[in-house]
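Renewal narrative, Specific Aim 1. Our central claim is that a sequence can be written position by position from structural information alone. The example that follows is taken directly from our test logs and has not been curated for this report. It begins with the structure tokens describing the chain, in the order in which they were read.
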């Protein structure tokens, strides 16, 4: 390591206050004490408060990569003050938590954090970045650049005209060899400057590395003298990433593939800094079929409400269902695994970065809904009840009032056709619950409507009047249907659909029509779960009241 006197003076001129060295920080951030092969990953958002579904997906991938043995931490990258919003951190933390993603360490709110490798918010790490930049200046690997914005714009315009690579490098790097004296005079004059890397890249140099998702990648080497520290002394994303992922001992950088083109810069920074580079896994964006063009495009914050993760909370998709869906788009072999392991925890599935789609998974709300229906069908009545209470407390006070008024009654409703071998898949999200349970509550029930139009109104009336007379609330489930059959026969309906089909002219309809009439009277619907159970849940007087009212309404 050559440390010329002038480099040392330059470093001292730029960073007189910085007295710690990289060696000091290496000691403060020792290797993690983890089992062999354990992975350390992070989710590193800007604190914009807005959590995009794609970011949730990236965080999910990071968390799954770390698995149970490793560490998944949250780092707040607030070097771009323009993107920040008030309480943005807590917004991100809660956004993750809503889907069960709780980092093992890192930022927890604007002011709190946990873990030994902090601070986990970049704006609190300025002295660390500066210590490393100071050391690079000492080694002649970085320099102050006093180019004005106008000068840079002029350089760019010229490069554009000549169709050259844009940026500050080679002959455009005006201050690469600035002397200490010159720098001192400019600083004393109040001139602003950034600190740039003296890139060791060669114009025809190439780099190659193995991306954990994309496979082998080859790209031109970086030759740009990129900015390490901005005018205000804060780091650029590139530089902060290298320092942080090194000191925090990240083993796998999982991030959106918009960063793929920056890899040559990052690998160069790791090399210049003398760090071992982490493994990179670049995740393709989640795509969506564009209704207008028929083509594919990125899921868009502007066009798609489902791009915001708050959408899933508002709609009431259970976090377990969203996790199921995330894993389905993460690893295409997950669905087969799930079919073969219906009741296993998702954590038992072995997620692999190498099995991720290189091109970008297609987002499919219908599929999510379907997965969610299956997921909810496997929940117990108590679990459904608790989730519905939590969701409605936040999003639907009327529903909340109804289900909490009589807990036992609500749980009975959610128990209907649940827990058996083939549970019903009626509910896809909690915002559908109100409609699903409407006929159990007078406040929501809007009367017997929707009679099948193949039966005369007069016959409907007769069926209901007779049924009121024979209705036996204490009868068993097994006795229920035969009784309806008897009634059907008595009133000129066929005992079975088959009998009716063989000789339709002899009947008014068949037993299914009779049951349907009772169903509509009691629930207002043609389709419901098991009617006997519904009637048992509603109670005798309510059933009779509904049927009486239905007759009146005819
Ligand atoms: N802060 C970067 C972003 O907002 C994170 C990129 C990374 O994970 O390295 O996208």
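The sequence written for that structure reads:
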């Amino acid at each position: 390591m050559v440390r010329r006197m002038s480099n040392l003076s330059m470093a001292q001129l730029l960073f007189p206050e910085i007295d710690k060295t990289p060696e000091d920080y290496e000691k403060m951030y020792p290797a993690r004490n983890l089992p062999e092969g354990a992975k350390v990953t992070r989710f590193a958002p800007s604190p914009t408060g807005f959590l995009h579904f794609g970011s949730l997906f990236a965080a999910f991938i990071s968390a799954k990569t770390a698995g149970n043995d490793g560490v998944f931490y949250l780092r707040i990258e607030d070097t771009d003050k323009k993107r920040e919003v008030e309480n943005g951190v807590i917004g991100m933390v809660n956004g993750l938590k809503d889907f069960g993603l709780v980092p093992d360490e890192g930022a927890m709110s604007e002011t709190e954090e946990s873990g030994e490798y902090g601070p986990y918010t970049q704006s609190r790490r300025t002295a660390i970045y500066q210590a490393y930049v100071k050391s690079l200046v000492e080694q002649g690997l970085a320099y102050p650049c006093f180019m004005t914005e106008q000068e840079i714009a002029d350089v760019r315009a010229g490069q554009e005209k000549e169709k050259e690579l844009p940026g500050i490098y080679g002959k455009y790097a005006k201050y690469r060899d600035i002397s200490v004296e010159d720098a001192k005079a400019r600083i004393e004059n109040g001139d602003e400057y950034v600190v740039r890397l003296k890139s060791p890249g060669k114009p025809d140099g190439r780099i190659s590395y193995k991306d954990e998702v994309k496979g082998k990648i080859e790209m031109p080497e970086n030759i740009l003298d990129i900015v390490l520290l901005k005018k205000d002394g804060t780091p650029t994303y590139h530089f902060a990433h290298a320092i942080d992922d090194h000191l925090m001992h990240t083993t796998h950088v999982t991030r959106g593939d918009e960063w793929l083109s920056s890899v040559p810069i990052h690998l160069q920074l790791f090399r210049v800094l003398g760090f071992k580079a982490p493994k990179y896994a670049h995740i393709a964006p989640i795509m969506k079929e564009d209704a207008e063009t028929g083509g594919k495009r990125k899921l868009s914050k502007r066009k798609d409400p489902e791009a915001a993760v708050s959408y899933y909370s508002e709609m009431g998709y259970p976090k377990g269902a969203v996790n199921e869906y995330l894993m389905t788009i993460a690893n295409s072999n997950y669905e087969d695994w799930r079919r073969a392991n219906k009741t296993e925890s998702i954590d038992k599935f072995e997620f692999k970065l190498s099995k991720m789609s290189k091109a970008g998974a297609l987002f499919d709300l219908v599929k999510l809904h379907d997965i969610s229906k299956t997921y909810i069908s496997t929940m117990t009545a108590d679990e459904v009840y608790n989730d519905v209470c939590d969701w409605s407390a936040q999003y639907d006070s009327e529903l909340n009032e109804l289900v909490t008024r009589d807990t036992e009654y609500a749980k009975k409703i959610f128990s209907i056709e649940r827990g058996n071998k083939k549970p019903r898949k009626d509910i896809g999200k909690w915002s559908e619950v109100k409609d699903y349970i409407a006929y159990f509550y007078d406040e929501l029930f809007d009367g017997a409507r929707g009679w099948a139009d193949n039966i005369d109104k007069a016959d409907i009336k007769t069926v209901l009047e007779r049924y009121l007379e024979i209705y036996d609330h204490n009868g068993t489930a097994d006795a229920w249907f035969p009784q309806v059959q008897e009634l059907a026969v008595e009133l000129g309906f066929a005992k079975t659909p088959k009998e009716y089909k063989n000789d339709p002219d002899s009947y008014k309809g068949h037993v299914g029509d009779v049951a349907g009439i009772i169903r509509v009277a009691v629930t207002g619907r043609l389709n419901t779960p098991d009617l006997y159970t519904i009637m048992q849940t509603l109670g005798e007087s309510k059933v009779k009241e509904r049927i009486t009212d239905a007759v009146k309404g005819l």
